[in-house]
Amino acid sequence: MGYPFTxxxxxxxxxxxxxxxxxxxxxxxxxYRSMNHFDDDVLYNEGKTFEVNFRRLDSEYNSKSHxxxxxxxxxRNIILFHIQQHDELNIYTFLCDSVxxxxxxxxxxxxxxxxxxxxxxxxxxxEILPPNPNGSxxxxxxxxxxxxxxxxxxxxxxxxxxxxxxxxxKTA
Length: 172
Fold this sequence. Notes:
By secondary structure, the protein is an alpha+beta fold. It has helices spanning 41-44, 69-84, 103-114, 151-171, and strands at 5-8, 16-20, 26-33, 49-56, 91-95, 121-128, 138-145. It contains four helices and seven strands, in the order βββαβαβαββα.
């Protein structure tokens, strides 16, 4: 079921969705065009590749020990609602930001979505290990329609691009 959410969609700008948990925590899910991230034509996807950003707005609340299964359900509902309103040739990517040290938690939410059955859309999660054994892993993923003409090539190219990107960031 999940939490109720409010869409704020201006199709020409950055669409976003807002929801509040039963603990009073506020979250936002944003969709950015990934036009500047990819120089590969397949990854660029004719400008139809979007980055999904998911973040909690209440930074003072420490929820590392708090697991809320309805957040994953709500995330899935928002992403499915959004993609049903748009072209099935769109591709959605995510990078779990490590700034607040909750990147692994976000990755778990996306992995739970990946286990959803009966969807025409596939949620694929990647864990990219750093070149430095003391470094931390990066968590990325893709949401892509299973009938997308470049399905397998996109996944291979995305994984390759993400690995290069992580290696560059971890050594810089």
